[in-house]
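Researcher: Next sequence.
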Amino acid sequence: MQALNPLSIAAPFGRYSHGVATRGAGRLVLTSGQLGLRADGSLPEGALEQARQCFANCAAILAEAGLSARDVLRVNAFVTDRAYFADYMAARDAFLAGVEVLPASTLVIVSGFTRPEFLVEVELTAMERA
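Model: Next structure:
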């Protein structure tokens, strides 16, 4: 993978790349949006713990496909309040710790999810390298 961060535009706002390029054929893996639900159906309190669980769920899906955070091309995330920005970023940065080529990343503030107690949702696009 190659990070695309042209010097002709402002630097990324955080630990992500403006774009990511890949070469060659590889298996594409996309996750559905993951909420902060644990395997037993319980929901952690607060945006930080929900975001951590979202990334843990995504990591489990990637592992099922034989992939890891280093294979992620794009992170799309949604939070229900700007106040959750720092908590989400802390969870995302922990998930990406040690990743050499950072993925593209988008965070959107939304009015809500299917249940009001859900605060964060994360979906990933990853590619298995040939």
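Model: The two ends are 11 Å apart (CA to CA). The domain at 2-127 is CATH 3.30.1330.40 (60s Ribosomal Protein L30; Chain: A;).
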